[in-house]
Design brief:
The protein is built from eleven helices and 13 strands. By secondary structure, the protein is of the alpha+beta class. The chain has two domains: about 10-115, Arc Repressor Mutant, subunit A, CATH 1.10.10.10; about 130-314, 2-Layer Sandwich (archaeoglobus fulgidus dsm 4304 fold), CATH 3.30.2170.10. The strands form three sheets. A nine-stranded mixed beta sheet has the order 7-6-5-8-9-13-12-11-10, sandwiched between helices. β6 and β7 (about 170-180) form a beta hairpin. α3 (about 30-40) packs across α4 (about 45-55) and α8 crosses α9. The longest helix has 16 residues, at about 300-314. The model has no long low-confidence stretch (mean pLDDT about 95). It binds two DNA strands through β5 and α8.
Length: about 325
DNA sequence: GCGACAG
DNA sequence: ATCTTGTCGC
């Protein structure tokens, strides 16, 4: 049984990062990569840097200047008196050894013993648990309704949209929603950023509708991309329609992970290249045929709608 | 230089 | 993803 609430919840990764930063003792530093690894995945290192630099509400004072690059480079400080120079000043005044813009003796100066819940490990485990629940069977052509979904952002305010068309490409329904997300984009964990914005578009999960999501399904390091998460959590048919590759190798129009075909490249109704992979309850071949055959890609329609919605309401 | 990571 | 400027094609 999958923990639906775990997938649907807004996990506040900012709070995790702030709670970690205050654990770095005066006179020591940590690195973006070290903090990401403590959370469970080094892939989040850029996200750690983005969160520390972001203009985001903080419940207490966060010593961002104590977080540096893993090669010792001090980097930038976005707080009061911003700049490279200010960050070095602050660290020097705290007794951190710096020379030539680099923190010295990293073995001793880099703090690694964070006390934190390894949330990314739990998320990755949850994706591995979900992967075997994905069904790759079902004819995409049997659906009367095809719904494209996408999200647009203003900072961490998400504006999502769903456009439902029939197989002739005629628009049957449009819907928008907005919500706050506090989980940044981390490669491999997109589902934990966008599950709520997408789910808030669903009055009820419809079995007569094929949902197409901007992102991958099985073409994911743990075979559980956002299209799989959305499909299994709601028990619906979903296809992944991505603009670029996340993982795997391309050979003659197919995307492979360890000799298994996990996706295909096609041209959509507008002639644009898209990477298709199974989310849930459809087979790859009919899914590709469907996306190629619809004159207006519902995912593109949803992209345009949520962009307009954001610009009109933010 | 390599590898390169959805949105 | 978003921002911003510049360029191309209709």
């Amino acid at each position: 049984m999958i923990d639906r609430d775990f997938h649907l919840r807004d996990h506040d990764l900012y709070r995790y990062i702030f709670d970690m930063a205050v654990q770095i003792p005066t006179g020591m530093v940590s690195t973006y990569g070290t903090m990401a690894r403590s959370l469970g995945d080094q892939a989040a290192s850029r996200a750690v840097g983005m969160m520390l630099a972001a203009d985001h509400a903080r419940p207490f004072k966060v010593p961002c200047h104590r977080v540096i690059y893993s090669d010792g480079r001090t980097g930038w400080y976005t707080g009061a008196g911003k700049g490279e120079e200010r960050k070095r000043e602050l660290l020097l005044s705290e007794g951190v050894p710096i020379s030539d813009g680099r923190v010295l003796d990293l073995e001793r100066t880099v703090f690694k013993d964070f006390r934190v819940d390894p949330i990314l490990t739990r998320m990755a485990d949850s994706q591995r648990e979900l992967a075997p629940l994905v069904s790759e069977h079902g004819d995409a052509m049997r659906f009367e309704r095809i719904a494209g979904l996408d999200v647009s952002y203003d900072g961490d305010r998400a504006f999502s949209a769903m456009v439902t068309v029939n197989r002739d490409g005629k628009v049957l329904e449009e819907k928008t929603a907005r919500c706050q997300v506090n989980f940044p984009y981390v490669p491999g964990y997109l589902g934990f950023r966008e599950m709520r914005p997408y789910s808030s578009l669903l009055n009820k999960a419809r079995q007569d509708t094929l949902y197409l999501i901007d992102g991958h399904g099985r073409a994911h390091p743990r075979r559980a991309g956002i299209a799989c998460q959305f499909g299994v959590v709601h028990g619906i048919a979903v296809g992944g329609v991505a603009k670029s590759v996340l993982t795997g190798s391309m050979e003659t129009g197919s995307l492979y992970i360890e000799n298994e075909e996990v996706g295909r490249v096609i041209k959509d109704g507008q002639g644009r290249e898209r990477f298709i992979s199974v989310g849930n309850r459809v087979d790859l071949t009919s899914l590709c045929s469907l996306v190629s055959s619809i004159s207006h890609n519902p995912t593109t329609l949803a992209h345009d709608l949520c962009t307009r919605y954001r610009k009109g309401r933010s």
